[in-house]
Amino acid sequence: MAGMEQVEVVVAHHECATLRVGDVFLKIDSDQARTGVEVAAMALAPIPTPRVLWRKPPVLALAALPGAALGRLGEPSAASPAAWAAAGAAVRKLHDAPLPPWPGRGPDEIRARLDGECEWLLANDVIPRDLVTHNRRIAETALRPWTPVFAHGDLQVAHVFIVGDEITGVIDWTEAGPGDALFDLAILTLGHEEHLDEVVAGYGADVDRDVIRAWWSLRSLQAIRWLAEHGFDPAAPGCEIDVLKARM
């Protein structure tokens, strides 16, 4: 029909789907608790987020953010060093905000899930055993006590939007909650290790880089099964399996 906006499928799997219609994103999620966390977190976050247009379960409508993603996993980022530093500064502003009023996951819960994922990887011979065991040892460094901060929880580089050197917003807040500050920094730089110095400079605080590297290993080990089962390829160049190999 003439004049109708084109519908773009941004992502779709059996748990949720995101469609873009013009300047509106429609998020359809089977788990409305996840959507509730996203809406609440965006309302509390002290950094730019998408504007909620309306919510009619299971659909959440969000306004598109201006600009483009800071980068993509598996691809070189065209963003400037200043933009990466601005991302670090935005993360620090989030972490300095009051904690959201719902619980987060602690080291013991994360360790139990990690052990289950490693067992699955080994039982199904998905990647070489030494790749799993070596990265599992590295991952243990991340599983220490931490002081919780307001964490995004899934701060992939593709979730941060920029115009020039300025951050215009951060999307996908379904995993937000009290968490480890270094986890957010690790997910932001996963597969983009060359930008870690810029992010840390913008963050403006001393960080333990060994813990960040440990989170790279942990996140990659945890993600492989989910990605494979949802139609994504963790073996694509620069993605999760390459991240694990880089730690060897």
Automatic annotation (TrEMBL):
Transmembrane segments: none annotated. Residues 43-207 form the Aminoglycoside phosphotransferase domain. InterPro entries: AGP_Transferase, Aminoglycoside_PTrfase, Kinase-like_dom_sf. It holds the Pfam family APH. This is Aminoglycoside phosphotransferase domain-containing protein. It comes from Actinomadura macrotermitis.
